[in-house]
Design a protein that fits this description.
six-stranded mixed sheet; 708 residues; binds adenosine-5'-triphosphate; alpha/beta; Rossmann fold; six-stranded parallel sheet; 5 domains
């Protein structure tokens, strides 16, 4: 039998840190190694200092070594690390590989923390205060990934914040689970990540069977079988893009399985929702290869995210699978569909044109009622459009839950002409609002019984779609296995209004999951951003509440910098000076995000004057990574993107929230305020490592009133 060869995720990262010449040698070595790890050309040397007797070193060249797990038992070889001779030996000296006896996952432990745990073990008798996890049996903690040898570290934790000290000491899965538990997530829910329940019998795991451990799906978050040509090539092409191959167990469980109907995936910013959605599209497409006609539709709210996703799919899908996936934002899909069906559709996107139509209609406002113009806009958006009210009769019947102004039949009759006139204005101009277009497309599909080629629909940014959009989406694929896969996060809702999937015919009961590990942002930035939303109840897209508990980032860094400058010039100076410290490469991975288009000019001028190149990311275009310079964009435009450094700038009172967003209706005011907070949350959570939030004169109340 051919030996089993695997490569750890860290091995790829370590190769990337080698000089160019050694990187090339390492890649050649991988090829040789995967073909035959027992080849006479590969010399295994034992490592005197190694705690784990299964670790060996092999030559990459004269000066560089790879560290390999080559256990006595079983024909298994795992590439773990590449480095200069001494550094590689030092790495190996501090590592121990263990198969978790409860979940069978292969884990890499640091020997120094095993020592620390042993010392703590001796002090256990002197412990006086109760431990945070006392109520949970060892067996369950081990099941959640805590290695037995490190258990004393966990038993000594007394308060939730101390869990963070374990981040560097425990395997990621153990830390993730403990962080969830410390945040109040139940043991059942934490165990469910691994499809285990409290009632399950203890597992029968052979802790010496490395080949078996590599086959465990949960080991795949850090080990790749070298026989998987496609995945290996993907990693060799872009070793830093771990998401292309190494999925979190929860991500895997969402992607690689049949679902008996629509699935909803929630998760805060940066938790890998789009990654999951892309892998899901790939999985569905690969299964549909034999049927020439069928397609997978991957739809998003914004055009630029659709372009981004299309680019990314190219990196994980073979051309035949790629051809099966249509990536398109829903507006564009509807336009294309309606045009093709002989009903050309022009959207009323031009703000000036729309204002003109409203001005014409508002002339019919009943004087006696003294209702502000905003009432009519809001009534249209909240009542008329979502409920498809197209006549006075329908308006009489329409539900107006949560609307500030009460209207009886007489009053409804008095205000109706405004809506009727606005509607005919749109019709005369040959324009549709998106809600109209969704509704028209749905009606056409239903009346003509049009069969679309989709066997699966993937929806990203689900929080921004409204009722009509979801009703249409429901209709695009027949109700069957794997039909709908919706990812979203109400905390990031910056366009649409709250929607209830169940009311759109999308039943997700029993098929709802949550991603909690933030892969993008440091814990400091994530925590700060989340606290902007504290105390606000966000929905789960289906009439429930989405709690913000149990989220964590595995990365640490500096706290966001919050500053209020005396004037605009001083703020711009700070940003410019900070950017001057970046290399050309660093600049292209930094972004200045502002609330309004008009605010950009200030920073554009400052950058031009100081000779810093910049690149404005426009509404419907891709961020062209080939372009040099710091990125300049609105907070709306950065949705779905990410940058090493974010400068969220000009966040002044009157700008966030925008003063002109005022309304007379307290419900609308609350909703708009919430949306503005979400905008800030979205902008800040684009930052991977550095985030500056600044303003001048007076900072936005969202920031100045935030508890420290
Ligand atoms: N399994 C993984 N391994 C490594 N990186 C990952 C993994 N999953 C996601 N990421 C990375 O995390 C970052 C965020 O992922 P993604 O954009 O999918 O999150 P998201 O939940 O859609 O974010 P948002 O809602 O904020 O737009 C990306 O840089 C992505 O490459």
């Amino acid at each position: 039998m051919h030996p089993k060869v695997a490569i750890s995720s860290e091995f790829f990262s370590s190769v990337l840190k080698l000089p160019k010449a050694q990187q090339e040698k390492a890649v050649k070595f991988i090829e040789l190694f995967r073909q035959d790890p027992t080849s006479p050309g590969i010399n295994y040397e034992s490592i005197q200092s190694a705690r784990d007797r299964n670790l060996r070193s092999v030559r990459i060249d004269q000066a560089y070594r790879a560290i390999v797990l080559a256990p006595e038992r079983g024909d298994v070889y795992i590439l773990l690390w590449a480095d200069k001779h001494d550094d590689a030996y030092e790495w190996a000296g501090n590592k121990v590989l263990r198969i978790n006896p409860e979940n069978g996952v292969l884990q890499i432990l640091e020997a120094q923390y095993i020592d620390e745990a042993q010392q703590l073990q001796q002090l256990t008798g002197q412990k006086t205060k109760p431990g945070l996890f006392d109520a949970i049996k060892d067996r369950y903690l081990v099941r959640l990934g805590v290695p037995e040898e490190l258990m004393p570290l966990v038993r000594h934790v007394e308060i939730p914040v101390d869990v963070d000290d374990l981040k560097a000491k425990l395997p990621d899965e153990a830390y993730e689970a403990l962080a969830m538990l410390a945040d109040g997530v139940s043991l059942e829910e934490a165990l469910s990540v691994y499809d285990v329940s409290l009632q399950d019998e203890p597992a029968q795991i052979d802790t010496h069977d490395f080949a078996g451990a590599l086959d465990n799906p949960d080991s795949k978050r850090r080990f790749l079988l070298a026989s998987d040509d496609e995945a290996l090539q993907t990693m060799l092409d872009a070793p830093l893009e771990k998401w292309r191959v190494f999925l979190h167990p929860l991500q895997r469980k969402l992607v690689f399985r049949d679902w008996n109907g629509p699935v909803r995936v929630l998760g805060g910013a940066g938790t890998g929702k789009t990654v999951v959605a892309m892998h899901r599209a790939k999985w569905l497409a690969e299964r549909a290869l034999t049927d020439r006609e069928t397609r997978i539709l991957f739809t998003t709210y914004t055009k630029n995210l659709a372009i981004d996703i299309e680019q990314n799919l190219k990196h994980i899908c073979a051309p035949e699978a790629l051809r099966k996936i249509e990536v398109i934002n829903l507006d564009a899909w509807v336009k294309r569909f309606m045009d093709k069906q002989g009903y050309p559709t022009n959207f009323a996107f031009d703000k000036r044109q729309k204002k003109q139509l409203w001005d014409n209609a508002l002339v019919l406002k009943p004087d006696a009622l003294d209702l502000p113009d905003s009432f009519f806009h809001e009534e249209w958006e909240k009542v008329i459009q979502p409920q498809n009210v197209n006549s006075l009769e329908n308006y009489f019947k329409a539900r107006r839950l949560g609307r500030g102004v009460q209207l009886n039949r007489t009053l409804k009759k008095a205000v109706w002409p405004v809506f009727e006139n606005y509607r005919s204005g749109l019709d005369d101009a040959g324009l549709k609002e998106t809600e109209d277009a969704y509704r028209d497309a749905l009606a056409l599909i239903q009346t003509k019984s049009i069969q679309l080629p989709y066997t699966g629909i993937i929806v990203d940014e689900g929080q921004d779609f409204g009722l009509n959009a979801f009703r249409l989406i429901r209709q695009l694929a027949p109700e069957q296995q794997n039909d709908l896969f919706i990812v979203g996060d109400a905390h990031q809702r910056i366009y649409g209004s709250k929607v209830v999937l169940g009311q759109c015919g999308i039943k997700i009961i029993g098929r709802s999951r949550k991603l909690r590990i933030n892969y993008r942002t440091t814990e400091q930035i994530r925590h700060w951003a989340v606290s902007l939303l504290n105390g606000i109840a966000f929905d789960d897209l289906d009439n429930g509440v989405d709690e913000q508990t149990g989220y964590r980032s595995l990365m640490s860094g500096t706290e966001p910098i919050i500053q209020c400058f005396a004037n605009a010039q001083m703020e711009a100076e700070f940003i410019v000076n900070s950017l001057k410290e970046l290399t050309d490469q660093g600049l292209a991975k930094a972004c200045i995000a502002v609330r309004r288009h008009a605010d950009m000019e200030r920073y554009r001028l400052a950058l031009t004057e100081s000779g810093i190149p910049f690149y404005q990311i426009d509404q419907n275009a891709l961020d062209n990574t080939a372009q040099p310079g710091v990125r300049l964009a609105t907070v709306h435009r950065v949705k779905g993107l990410e940058f090493d450094a974010m400068y969220v700038a000009g966040i002044n009172e009157g700008i966030v929230p925008l003063a002109i967003l005022d309304s007379d209706d307290p419900t609308i005011i609350r909703e708009r305020q919430q949306r503005e907070r979400s905008l800030l949350y979205v902008a800040i959570t684009r930052a991977k490592g550095f985030c500056s939030i600044s303003g001048f004169g007076k900072l936005s109340q969202f920031i100045s009133s935030k508890p420290a």
